[in-house]
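ESCALATION

Customer reports they have been waiting on this structure for their group meeting. Please prioritize. Original submission:
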Amino acid sequence: MRMRTLPQAVQILREEDPETAITLTALRRMVKQGKLPVTQMGRKPLIDLDRLPEYLQGAAMPPSTPYGIRPIKE
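Update from on-call: job pushed to the front of the queue and completed.
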């Protein structure tokens, strides 16, 4: 399992395929919509780089934890 930040993941995708249409904004949007599972390390979402191509090819991925503010108990 190779966990990378979103900018690192985009950089690696571009090294592997210089013509890729995947952008940092696109990955961030997928994370925010819960379409791309991530692991939160503090404020940084980390992507499993080994599973990213599966998702981009249309494989179903388990939903991730919603990205954003969590409710607190009163």
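Sent to customer with the following note: Helices lie at 6-16, 24-32, 52-56.
Escalation resolved.
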